[in-house]
Amino acid sequence: MRSDTVRAAAVQIAPDLSGRAGTIERVLNAITEAADKGAEFIVFPETFVPYYPYFSFVLPPVSQGAAHLKLYEEAVSVPSPETRAVADAARRRGVVVVLGINERDHGSLYNAQLIFDADGTLKLKRRKITPTYHERMVWGQGDGAGLKVVDTRVGRVGALACWEHYNPLARYALMAQNEEIHASHFPGSLVGPIFGEQIEVTMRHHALESACFVVNATGWLSEEQIAEIHPDPKLQKGLRDGCMTCIVSPEGRHLAEPLTEGEGMVIADLDMRLVTKRKRMMDSVGHYARPELLHLVHDMRPATPVRQILPSDDDDRENEFPTQREETADA
Question: Where is the CN hydrolase domain (predicted)?
Answer without folding.
Answer: 6-272
